[in-house]
Design goal:
Oligomer: single chain
Order of helices and strands: HHHHHHHHHHHH
CATH class of one domain: Mainly Alpha
Radius of gyration: 39 Å
Number of helices: 12
CATH superfamily of one domain: Tetratricopeptide repeat domain
Number of strands: 0
CATH architecture of one domain: Alpha Horseshoe
Strand content: under 5%
């Protein structure tokens, strides 16, 4: 009896060996370079974060140092150098309001009102309740003979605080330049009431002169001389009004004193 038939053919063919792709040395090096570059990129990113955090921590210190140097330079009347320091302050700390204020003042000292106006505008935006930057900007407009904007800034400042003497002085000076002497006189009088200083008395006296009210002018020039007895311009101005009132001897004395001060 025949035995069971043995199928000598296997159910499946034996699997073929995988095809091996040779790895070249250049491939290994390329992979290694990618890994190294990835680590370098990560390290650089971390270094940049650390550097940024560090700069953010020290910038306010450097900004204060630049600001303090600018203050000293303004006090020494070295305005161009002061401006450079305030530039650096603002670069490091863009919200440093006092740096804008003093840079604007330095520009005004350099007779550059067009450069000063943006700085005062910036402070006015940063400190909307403060009338001072409006007054400062108004004087910059006054320096440009832009009387309409000077008056507008004085009005804005007085709307914020009706007791700012410099705002009245600003508006009065602009009004006088436009020929409105009576309104100018009223504003100078208010300025004198609020801030009885040399400039307010002198400016009101000059306005009295323009109105041919020389006795009142002499009285105000007396006050101005009292504030600055070593300044010749008040003596020269008072001499004119004294002469206009018939006080020729007093006018002569004022001129002699003023000339002596100027080294004549």
């Amino acid at each position: 009896m025949d035995g069971p038939e043995i199928n000598s053919t296997p159910d499946t063919e034996p699997s073929k060996p995988p095809v091996l792709i040779p790895v070249m040395a250049e491939d290994v090096e390329r992979r290694q370079r990618k890994v190294v570059l990835s680590w370098i990129a990560a390290a650089l990113a971390l270094a940049l974060v650390i550097w940024f955090v560090y700069r953010r921590s020290i910038d306010p210190l450097h900004a204060q140092e630049s600001y303090d140097a600018g203050v000293r330079l303004i006090q020494a009347t070295r305005y161009e150098e002061a401006i450079l320091n305030f530039d650096r302050t603002i670069e490091l700390k863009p919200d440093f309001a006092d740096a804008y204020r003093l840079r604007g003042k330095a520009y005004m000292a350099e007779t550059k009102p067009d450069a000063a106006i943006p700085d005062f505008t910036k402070i006015a935006q940063m400190r909307p309740a403060d009338p001072d930057p409006l007054v400062e900007r108004g004087f910059a407009y006054l320096d440009k003979k832009d009387y309409a904007n000077a008056i507008a800034d004085a009005d804005r400042a007085l709307a914020l605080n009706a007791r700012v003497g410099r705002a009245y002085n600003l508006r009065a000076t602009a009004l006088r330049a436009t020929g409105d002497l009576q309104k100018a006189l009223a504003d100078f009088t208010r300025a004198v009431e609020l801030e009885p200083n040399l400039d307010n008395y002198f400016q009101r006296a000059s306005t009295y002169q323009m109105l041919n009210q020389h006795k009142l002018a002499v009285a105000d020039f007396d006050q101005a001389v009292g504030f600055a007895p070593d300044q010749p311009h008040a003596y020269f101005a008072r001499a004119q009004s004294r002469a206009a009132t018939g006080d020729l001897a007093g006018a002569k004395r004022d001129i002699e004193v003023a000339r002596k001060m100027e080294g004549w």
